[in-house]
Design brief:
By secondary structure, the protein is of the alpha/beta class. The chain has nine helices and nine strands. Strand 4 and strand 5 form a beta hairpin.
Length: 315
């Protein structure tokens, strides 16, 4: 499968799955089936072959980029006569709800940790930077959750800039998909070699926001960006399938914000999930997420079973 998108043809080198797999260059598989099981997301049957064909070449590419950035930093610091700030190499992973960003991020983190050059690899999701539920209700944004205006962007930028400047420890807020709210608990991030930042709108720039265009954006701090892509019809079906899984699992927890969905029949659950997609996730995808796709350095295009069918690498 080769992209027929003229913009992508102009900007990217397209690799079919087996072509990309050939770029692994003997990088060993250091992830076991047991470990992969723990990294999989809901409704994703990713096999070790996917790790071998897609993620090992990707981890090799990332290792080369990180090494190049580190060398440039050494040269610049020597030229300026400065001590290094120890800011991390930041990889962002964007894409729609239900596309499998979190699984991609976890697998990449696990593989990059196994390279001796950068054992400290942290993963932060931007979900924690959503405004607390009480503020979303106050601002009338509950039905816009996940849209750019539902995030505390200033808090996110302060977090990333503190990391980039080499602060010893920076705290990121955590998020609970059970309570549907930000947690009191935070994640301590202490000068990692690599930070993987996963979220819906991490590729957004000032072009998407006419408000205060002078402020920096998340994308200004990112060294390498990845977009996980799939046709919307597949995304919607994956979201419905995931909703059904949650209904019989997480939704039934006593403290679940969505506990009222746990008693829905299969048909009611499918209709509810489809309505949520059509009113919230679909519009957010088309208005805010999909328009950022061609800003990514690399696009992972998925097939019907969550398998990566094609990789696009920016020229």
């Amino acid at each position: 499968m080769i992209t027929n998108n003229p913009i992508q043809q102009a900007l990217y080198l397209a690799f079919a799955r087996q072509q990309w797999a050939g770029l692994r260059d003997a990088v060993p598989l250091t992830l076991s089936e047991t470990e992969l099981t723990q990294l999989r997301g809901i409704n994703e049957n990713i096999l070790l072959a996917e790790v071998t064909d897609i993620y090992l070449p990707l981890s090799r590419l990332m290792n080369l980029f990180v090494g190049s950035k580190q060398q440039r930093g050494i040269v610049l610091n020597e030229f300026l006569g400065k001590k290094p700030t120890d800011g991390p190499y930041i990889i962002s992973i964007a894409g729609s709800v239900a596309v499998g960003k979190s699984t991609t991020a976890r697998i990449l983190q696990a593989l990059l940790r196994r390279w001796p050059e950068h054992p400290r690899v942290d993963l932060v999701t931007t979900d924690g930077f959503l405004y607390p539920l009480s503020i979303l209700k106050q601002k009338g944004l509950l039905q816009r959750k996940g849209f750019p205006e539902s995030y505390d962007t200033r808090m996110l930028i302060d977090f990333i800039s503190a990391l980039k400047s080499g602060q010893p420890t920076v705290h990121a807020p955590k998020y609970s998909h059970i309570t549907y709210d930000r947690c009191e608990e935070t994640q301590a991030v202490s000068q990692p070699d690599i930070l993987i930042l996963e979220g819906l709108n991490v590729l957004q720039t000032e072009l998407d926001s006419p408000v205060d265009i002078r402020r920096p954006f998340v994308s200004d701090f990112v060294d390498f960006s990845i977009y996980v892509d799939a046709p919307e019809a597949q995304l919607k079906q994956w979201y419905i399938n995931r909703f059904l899984q949650f209904r019989s699992g997480a939704f039934s927890a006593d403290n679940s914000y969505f506990r009222h969905y746990a008693q829905l029949s299969d048909q009611q659950a499918k209709e509810t999930a489809a309505t949520i997609w059509d009113s919230i996730n679909g519009p957010n995808l088309n208005q805010n997420i999909l328009p950022t796709r061609e800003r990514a350095h690399l696009i992972l295009q998925k097939g019907p079973e969550h398998e990566i069918a094609q990789v696009l690498l920016r020229k």
